[in-house]
Amino acid sequence: MVIALALCAMAADLVTMGAAAKTTLQAVSEGLTCQCGCGLTIANCAHPTCGFAIPLRQELQTLIDKGIGRDQILVSMRRKYGEKILSAPTTEGFNILAWVMPFVAIIAGGALIVLAMGRWRGAPDESSRAVQPQADQFDPALRRRLEQELHSRL
Predict the structure, then answer these.
(1) Do 60 and 25 touch, CB atoms closer than 8 A?
(2) How far apart are CA 138 and CA 8, in angstroms?
(3) Residue 133 domain flag
(4) Fewer beta carbons below 10 Å: N end or C end of the chain?
(5) Has residue 118 been placed in a domain?
(6) What is the dihedral of CA 93, 64, 41, 30, to 10 degrees?
(7) What average pLDDT is seen over the chain?
(8) CA torsion 106→107→110→112, rounded to 10°?
(9) CB atoms < 10 A from the CB of 32, how many?
(10) Domain of 6?
(11) β partners of residue 33
């Protein structure tokens, strides 16, 4: 979990450093998902006549020309279209689970595998061993009769 939080902090630092650099259409459109149904980002939408990506690219370029930064544009688009427009979940509120849960699942799965391997390799439980009867537990008369019948049949 500590590793996941460190990775989130590093990602936030990279985003902050990117905002200090010059905002480009490519950088902004990579952060937004096309809503035409293709499932790609605005920068990568392959539909030549996409009714969503093409006008949005023009709108983004207008905002960039006005000097608005990447983060401000993304916030504006999030307000306009909702959370679904963002190509990556935000690192706040419930969305933090999207960043943390893969690491938690991997760690939990590894722990379960280690536990299972330990149980499989461990010594068998005392209660599971069959109790072997000792020779003196049988009635001597029955033992003699058994031996006689075995000798007579062989």
Answers:
(1) yes
(2) 72
(3) no
(4) C
(5) no
(6) -70
(7) 81
(8) -110
(9) 23
(10) 2-96
(11) 41
Count the domains in the chain.
Answer: 1
Rounded to an integer, what distance in angstroms lies between the CA atom of residue 71 and that of residue 54?
Answer: 21
What one-character-per-residue DSSP string does 6-32 give? HHHHHHHHHHHHHHHSPP-HHHHHHTB
- Give CA–CA dist 25/63, Å, rounded: 10
In a domain, 116, yes or no: no
Q: What is the pLDDT of residues 36-61, one digit of tens each?
A: 989 899 989 988 899 999 999 999 99
Residue 36 lies in a domain: yes
- Contact of 62 with 116, CB cutoff 8 Å: no
Amino acid at 97: L
Closest CA to 55 of 38, 37, 36: 36
CATH code at 89? 1.10.8
| 81-124 residue pLDDT tens | 988 898 887 777 787 888 889 999 999 999 999 999 988 887 66
Q: Residue 86 in 3-state DSSP?
A: strand
Q: Give the global pTM.
A: 0.50
